[in-house]
Fold these 4 entries.
Entry 1:
Amino acid sequence: MDEQRWNNLCATRTAYEDSTEESGTGPLEMFVEVSAQCNLRCRMCAINFDRRYRPAAGRPTLFTPELFTKLTPMLRTALRCYLFGLGEPLLNPNLVDYVSACSSAGSEVWFNTNATLIDQTIANRLALAGTDAITVSIDGATAETYESIRRGANFERAVAGVRALIEANERFGRPSVDVSFVAMASNFKELPGMIDLCAELGVGSLHVEPLYSQREEHLEAHYARENLGVLGPDAVDRTLDAAILRSRATGVRLTSRFVAEHVDPDYVQHSLSEQPWWRCSEPWTAVWITSAGEVRCCCLNDTSFGSLLEQPFEAIWNGDLFRDFRRAQQHGQGPSSCANCRVNGRVRCSPYLRAVEPMIYRPLLGPDIPPKPDDDAPQLEWPPPDGVVGDPLPVVGHSRARAHGHDLQVMIDHTVVTDLGRHGVVDGSRFAVSIPVPYLTEGAHMLWLRPRGALEHHGWCHRHVHFWRPDANRSLAVGLAIVPIPRTRILPLRSPTIEIDRARQPVRVLRERRGLDVHGAALVDLREASPGPKVLTARMGGKILEARRVLVR
């Protein structure tokens, strides 16, 4: 992520947390309705009934190149561009050009498709243009079920489209491809078969989406007939268990709110007992641009903040209408169209702002998390709560009576990222470790400690950290860096000399002896280092331990 986008993300996060009416200089995410028409008539899709998509409404069916040029200001801040709406994006003949423009501007490009219009030529062009991720909607493992739901579709054509995308990925390294399955009473029994279908096609991930209740007579009736609550929790759990077994056997990742949450599968019923304690982040982080050029904050919200055909985007983003809308959201006074997300339990908090549960977008840190720490629990000294971190991730702390440093694991979100006893340096009660995290996504994460192997333990020291990767060739250094000192049998272990662009830095060394060997960690205090691109060099005994390019912040 370049520095302009990162600075805008930080300003947006501050605006959201402080509930201010202005939010950065532009959105973190943008949704572009490249097509307002579809080649299918799926039973659960609002495009078949929404008055805004009827011919009499006068909505343009396609997002035009002329209108697309007006997105340029947003592309300077957008981290991710979703090129789809309720329609099928492949119906727009300019889609590949739009992908290329967004990708060239530095944004990730994602979209959903039914894949029935994709052949190998199109798949290759999408890959070469810079498409990062494509989700294909397939709601049945058999042609009969799939074609009964996605009316007008051909199962074999959709499968061929997936194969073409997988082949493009194998040849060009992108896009990543996953499949989305809308779970309904009439198709849920085919979920284990969907896992097998994905494995056969080479798709690595299957996402199971709940059927959502929508504010329209036909769709409400469809929800009443088809939501998984009709099957009952026991039947749903049996099918989920079978699908999880197939997932483990095939290696296809299964993601779903149904897996993450063991709650009433009728999400409308469930939402009655769970009120979100967080605010929707979309008014601060996102825009939805319709094919008519209207600027909204999401696909369901009816509020238009202006038209790109009449105003420049800069006048809209922090204009009076958007500011009024954010002010209303602060006080829980959003428009009636916001109720649809609350009814379906899908009030979204952006993962760029806070660590969230995948698929659910509920913040991981809330009123009851973290629990009140014990007086004798381990303590983290670095990184601080809400600190900015990079790769490698420096972690420093001290243990107390409840857990020795050798027995601690460092966690990010729900994942163990290192074992201090194996990879860290434990010097008495103090510990330090430098953790390579090449897999970590940019944005907010929850860092915490837990006892080794204690899967049900609530852990300690929970905090948000904000991960930034400035570029592929330079690591981020904020406040503290750790230089590992290799194992040696030469005693005593000396302190290395650490320089930032030849300026010597304060160093504190932790040492740990294991058998005949001793190793250590040099903690480099960067708080007084001048910011900017630098070279960090570590020397010990006339040899260079480490030399790396860093961005000091």
Entry 2:
Amino acid sequence: MSANIPNDPVAIQKLFTSRDNYANANTYVGQEQRLWYNPATNCFYVSDGVTPGGIPVGNCGGGGGGSTGATGATGPQGPAGTNGVGATGPIGSTGATGSGSTGATGVAGPTGSTGLTGPTGPQGPAGDAGGIGSTGPIGATGLTGAGTTGATGETGPTGPAGSTGIQGATGVAGADGSTGATGATGSPGDRYQTTSSNTLSIATGNVSLTVGTGLAYSVAQDAIIAYDINNHMVGMVESYDPLTGAMVINVATIEGTGSYSTWIVNLDGAQGAVGDTGATGATGLGATGATGIAGPSGATGLTGLTGPTGATGVDGATGATGPQGPAGIAGDIGATGPIGATGLTGDTGVAGPTGATGLTGATGLTGATGPQGPAGDTGGIGATGPIGATGLTGAGTTGATGATGPQGATGVTGATGVQGATGATGSGATGATGASGTNGSDGATGATGPQGATGPAGLGTVNTTLVTTSTYTVQPSDYYIGVNYNGNVTITVPTTTDGRMIIIKDESGNCSNNPILALGTIDNDINGFNLQINNGAIAMIYRSGWRIV
């Protein structure tokens, strides 16, 4: 089924594309004569205003485009105008060639009107719509308006509070109950004070000793090992085993000298030993009385009435809208969608009749031909056979050309006759080639161009020099200078001509300890350059001073 679009030779249907993410292709009706594309079926549809899903355009069945329809028959050609045959005037004898100017061209006859153009065939389906480009970033939000908020209305007065209920009477206190049994004694606190009988000398460094077990020492605590007030050691606990009492202390400071085997060990700066616990007093014998019954709660007073709500204040005027933020940068244009398959070719409209050919205007008089310029020199041509003498040109003047009669309508073209057989190819012998013309004389030799600059000379075999002393001055013949000396070396590089190159190489393999100084102006430094890379080398070229390359 094809779309029913009015066949109006003037009206056209313009197309545009947009994407509808919420339409159902199977039930979509759309606007009458609007065209859309369904990617699920790879088809175009046109709306007739009522049919759900639209009407498929052309031979739509998915896959590639349909085959091209047959070309419509060509309309009949209009009748040709009659061919006029005006009488030709008598041809006069040819007169002498005149030298007058060319006459003006005659006015052309009017052109016949063009026949009507046949109706255009239906347009093929449009190609797939290109993908929608990504959305550009959102521009910055404009400034918030500066209008003030209206004042809040006054709060209504609070209603009066209800009266407090009467408090109930307090109950009678009960007798004290008997004292409970004494709880179990708590666990002893952390203990640090202990003794050691190891024989130790007062000195710094790690000290190993055995102390009491079950103590609370931990690594990195400061401890003191004391014999008396004048002989003791202070250090940091390295390790302690609470099961065996083995301890290691890294002594940092000492007081006194000597070796002792009776030591008191404790935290450095710890509090003194805990004194003996005093005797517990006798427990009282009086029984605790029972708790009295709680009196009843008084009744809650009535809640006062809520005061009326104050009137709402008038809203403040809305602040002016802030200026709009700059527009975001436009997103990249999406890639162009693939070009849709070419629609079927519409039938060719019937050709309109050919308009009658206008009358041909009369031909203007031919002006006299101007004199011909002298011919250029002709190259030598092979000898030509003799030509007979030309007869004398008649001297009579050319008669005026008769007016061309109106052109008659063209008659119907007759059927083309059968083509005759091709005649046999002539086999005549080819004529002899003419003799070659004389060669022209040679032109004068051009002046010799200026000579190019001389290229640099090839190195070929270069001169090498071995330096085994602490000083050396570069000689004019030096190119490669190897240095093998057990000590510092100074190589003096004097000024020279531009373009000269030298290489200085450490052959001792020890210039990191015995530097090689290239003394001279090198890279604009008058102090030269120190080579301190074992087996290293520097190459230099002279151009207004030595340059490292």
Entry 3:
Amino acid sequence: MRTPHIKNEAERGGKDHAFFALALNAAQEVIGATAPNPPVGAAVVSSEGRLLSVAAHERAGAPHAEALAIQNAVAEWGAKEGAKEKAEALKGATVYVTLEPCNHQGRTPPCTQALIRAGVSRVVYGVADPNPRVAGDGGKTLLAAGLRAELVAHPEQRAEAEAIIAPFAKWCRTGLPYVVHKIALRPVETPSEQPDAKWTSVPPAGQVTFSSEASLRLAHLERRKADAIVTGMGTVLTDRPRFNIRLTTDHKRTSPKPLYVIGEEERLKSNKRDYDNFYSWKTRQEQELGFTVRVIPTLLQALKELGAIGLHRVLLEAGPKLSKQAEDQGLWDERLVIRVSGDGNPDHITRHLK
């Protein structure tokens, strides 16, 4: 059954909201898979208001979201139109895309040209390209070609689109990745444990974690979104943590994920127990769990290196010492705090932006 024609602007606004939500959902699914490119989602809707396709940019070098959505729409729906030529399948269509279409040649052709060639009449995007070298070019090119190009009308959807590419935007401005600092806290159980504190991030003796299953699943989702993970030498030597993703599915990766350990590797040589402990842990991370491990003295050095190789989003999973370094130097952008109640109630989870 065909979707009815859009009758007025109020109806169009409602449909815009629904279709743009599909593009946002597609973009959310690829966060952590696309660096050095941003995560982007797109949806193609016919002139009659019928959804034709939804797609996302899956990895660097693969088609961009709007180009892939157009390709899929033409292949599937053009073939179903019978006598209608595939070349006319998208005539008058609207494309919803979370980021302003690119207008430059990189590893893939400009998306503006794909939209123009497809014959679509309208492009609704969530946020202007934050790259200062190209910002606004995509929208201007589409307008010059006679298409309607406009920001999505709903403020909450613009805000979500901006949040999705916030790591890419920071990287474009500063060359540094966006840092999500995850902290899990539990009540101090005895005065001798930490005399001057009510909360601690240190697990109880004999445990490596203390948060709930739901909180652990959230932490694993954050790992999925991260291009790299950073932790401290103290955390490694004390907890021997596994940073792989076990409570959700990971992206299909073509190379190991960087895992940076902040500390002095030379100091390990003076303590055989710590030396053996660290290198056995490192071997497992690299041979079994899909990481490449690098030890580096400071958090700032780590972030500069990760930014230099085009990574946008870092998950900082650290103990008290490295957490204080991040706090004192302002080397975080988003803080995810998980507080375990200690009385059987659900964990209290909050997010803070710097």
Entry 4:
Amino acid sequence: MIHRETGEHFALKVLEKAQVERVRKRHPNVANEISMERRVLSRLRHPNVIELYHAFQDYTCLYLLLEYCPGGEVWQRLQADGGGVASVGVPESLARFYARELINGLSFLHSKGIIHRDVKPENMVLMAQGRLKLIDFGSAKDTIETDLNGPEFVGTPEYMSPEASKSRETLMEGDLWALGCCLYQFFVGLSPFRAPSSYLVFLRSRRCHPRYPAVIPPLARDLISRLLRKRPEGRLGSFRHADVEARGHAAILAHPFFSAPDKGGGGGGGAAAAEAPAQVPTTTKGEEDSSSSSSSDGTLAPEVEVVLEATPREARLRELAAQCVTQAMSTTPPSTEFTGSMTSLSSAERAVVLHLLEGQGRLGEPRILRLGQLGSSSSSSSSSSSVSAGQAAKARLLGRVDWSGKEVYGLGKADQIKYARPFFFVYLGGLSGCSGAGGREGGRKGLEKAVLGINRLRPRLVVVSPALWKGEGREEGGEEEKVWEILGRISESIPVVVASSGGGGGGGGREGGGCGFWYGGMRGLVVAGEGAHEGGNEEEDWVVEELEQARYNDIRSVLVFASQPWFGGISEVEEEKKRRSSSSRSSGGVISPRLRKWALGKLHGRETGLRAVIAPLQAASLPSCVVDVAAGGKKEAPSDSDSSSDEEEEDSDGEKKEEEEEEEEEEEESIEKVQQIMVRDACIIEVYRERISYTFLTAEELAAHQAVQLAHEAPLGEED
């Protein structure tokens, strides 16, 4: 609204009394929330807090006359081009500025005894000059005047701390947790614990194993990880932190992320590093803001620069992402200028371009993905000017995976979560039958034949076992590079998913060799190393969380592609692996009890979503086979090494977990549905709505296979 005499703009928040009364029936604290917002805003004046000018009412409505913020919500800035179609985050320069503004606002609130309890991008608005303002204090907690405080379980699930989701007392550390979530979202565009339902969000946040896509630079990642700690007193900035130097909001602002651009990160980290601070479009804080700022309460110092937009280099990366789409639609080859710009990108800058395309749902198009990866082989290889065909193929195939975020570009949940029709894909095991018959040469020829068959059959995707290049003697004498060169002959229109124990190409750093993908409603988990067999590591945490989310989200088509069989009890496998002196299906197999429970157990009345574990056989004498894991029918004993996320958890120095309560449900029904598929050479896997079928082939048979005839399946609604 505009003042008629002065022409000033104001915002008017209108609350209908009748609506408030209706809401009160299911939300009794709503009247206190309205009073809390008025009380808090009436006594607070700060550049990063929305200003309340006046509150009044008439017979039908309550009115709050507020400061007008024409810049809109920060959440809108996270969308691609501000259009709300795809959420991709903001460049690093803006993310750093928003985080600094948010910290200063929270520092002031906490110094006045106010805990916001609903910090999120939707509750941050921007002034015309670019300054950030916190709004919506209805759910705030006043530690001084406590009469209007509501329950502890309050806020938006994706930003609620573990203690808040358990209705425990929440202090200023709850806002620090939300700060970490917001900083993550500034880079990625999505919150770190997003899930289809609030319950699934709480499961993820209580486990506290966020995945950090390559678009988040290392320094930002370190800061976020210090804020997202399960124990409140362990969060950076907590006044209860064991380390005195880590206490207070000043400790957060002292983090290296705020002192200098990150020269090694993604998400604009590498891009911003090349730019001098003077090149960031800024404006100086006005005299009015300077007069209301005070260094004693941790606010910004006078004459601070306000970042209005991305640096020129960051803006250039967004232009390159848009050009990838336009160049892909063109019938002419990519321009020399575009090709030169793409090949000159660092791995961090390339991660930004790929992230922008992924956020817009364009990386599923092979030509766009190919353009986004231009030059990845040279940027990820050694300093040598010449790049072999094997090195180039390896960089291209590994560059399809965001190893830090553990997701495959172009095979994301947004586009592939729903099952549409039957499809098939190919799994390549160790090709041990070929190598056994003719040594290394036989293995290479077998792989070449398999690739010919794949290009003829045109499967929806290909999953490759690391046994192809990690088998006996294959890591020596350039054999691994030759394997990659042959794999690079697979048509670029067929997605190839691989696991690797080495650094990923073109995607930035990563935590482990595993990755996940979606296709036609099927969730695939590619587990690279032996970590899941040993327990207590990050890759196992990732697999457990995926199985937990699938279980409670009713996802019934999860396939795990392991580097070795998960379950024992098969004499041939035990003889081959010789991992344990004695093992049986009922004694735990070769994976940890914790992982076995989530893979097989029926917990809280919900069955596992795991359909099968697919692993390579590396002995030519053993045939491919399908094994029902619980053929003996013996019930699995509940594990005491893992705690379900809906139970109480502790996070001391070693992040110890409480013992799990005994499960009451029978597990046999769930166990019977899990199969272990052991593949010697290759396997064609057909995926239907209610079943999955397997066809084992040698490399020669795969090369000779002319077509895959999928069975007819009636559309949904036409079945009995």
